Amino acid sequence: CRKLSRPSRKPVTAETTFKPKKSSGSAKVTFTFNASSLKGKTIVVFGELYQEDLKLAVHADITDQDQTIYFPEIGTTAKDKETDMNLSQADKEVTLVDTVAYKNLLPGEEYVMTGTLMDKETGKPVEIDGTSLAGKTVVVFESATYDGKEFATHADLEDNGQTIYFPEIATTAKDKADGDHFAKTDKEITIVDTVKYSNLIPGKEYALTGTLMDKETKE
Questions:
Q1: Average pLDDT per run of 10 along the chain, which is 219 residues long?
Q2: Global pTM?
């Protein structure tokens, strides 16, 4: 059986060469690397000073806060306030609650969390009221800032935990006897209302309730 080779993982290192004009001062070492896998992690920078091949000094303290960089991570779960699910009704006023779980923040500091509703179909921000959302799906994007600077985002159009569905139904009522919109005033008649639905979550159980209304009295 042949072993699959894994990609080699190299340490992230950087160096700079300098000639000091004074015996004391500072020099900058700049690291540029792919940090996409570091969400929720904490890294510590170790430093070594060389003169040619001779090691002169080391600063390598895993507990030193001045050497530490934090990579926060946030995750969100959006629900409709009334249904407590990711299903909502397209009313004039809709209240969605997005619970943001965070990791690797510094305690005692003040952060700002900003949410944006995105239209899943267009990928653009929602700029309409709740009644216009029937049949649509919205996704909540979150951005976390500290001191006016963004440091973490959760923005995934395919994340079901961030997604709110607004179902839509349309009905067509007909007399069962002849399949048209006219019915006889018999003692017993049957009206069949065919309900077309969109934007429901498959696998869940739903109930349809019908009510006959007097068009003149609206009762």
A1: 62 93 93 92 95 93 94 94 94 94 93 95 90 93 95 93 95 91 88 94 92 94
A2: 0.74
